[in-house]
Amino acid sequence: MNLHRKGRAALVLALVAVVGMAFRVSWNALRDIAGAVGADETAAMLYPFVVDGLMALALIATLVLADRDRTFALRVLGAYTVASLVLNYVHGLVPELHGRTVDWGRLADWNPANWALVLLATSLPVGSIYFGSDLVAKVLHHRPTPIPAASANAEECTETERKRSTADLPVSTPAPITANAAALPRPVAVGFVKSTLPAKPLPQVDPAPVAPIERRAVAAESTRPRRATGRVPAVAKSSRPKRTPDQLLAEAREATADWPDAKVTAEGIRRAVRTSPVNARALRDTLRAERAGAAA
Length: 296
Fold this sequence. Notes:
Blueprint: H1 2-36, H2 41-64, H3 67-93, H4 96-99, H5 111-140, H6 149-152, H7 154-163, H8 245-255, H9 266-273, H10 277-295
Helix pairs in contact: 1-2, 1-3, 2-3, 2-5, 3-5, 8-10, 9-10
């Protein structure tokens, strides 16, 4: 654990040293650019802190923030890195900047390029105020997600389970022998187990006395023969005498004498004379045939 912490500390110190040396190398270029766009001597000395200092702040923010805030910090870091690179490149192309003999506000011979470079150099301090304040606010309001205890100890638990031998597993305890199970043959254990002392023989348990079953009086069955339920008795049948086809036809003629032809149906005849559907259809056909012959 100490070596792990020392390695992290050494890495952070190496990063600080590299950033410090890079800041010193870029110092002259940014100072001369600031003087060329109208900054006084004090402002030109502070100008490198505005550009490279915000780069360092954005780098720290990327290590703290997460998700969208981290992406925003990376974009700020990339934008100011490109701006510092452009200004250092212009400082290397214009020798007059080294001796501060260049005309005030003149960084390139071509006017559009000169206007773009002056706008870039003068907008970096304003951007540092805006982006720096936003990054600091995001860092102060950032709440790291707590790591659950189960996840933190997952590696340790996994390692413990791997090192655990089969001898440490709990041995299953045999179930107690009851009176009914005493007479059954004992099962034979199969498998490889640790050598143990032979178990002492258990005394045979006598079966518990069982009380005799008491006989209870049961009511005798009735000797009266039961009435058959599959057939309907003759008394329950209808008392209406069976009618002949001629009688049914006469009743149907009388019932349908004043009916129109459309009303003469099998269902209507069946309800009127109270007969079966088969007889009702036959009566309907007969009555319609009689009416058709009479109309002809």
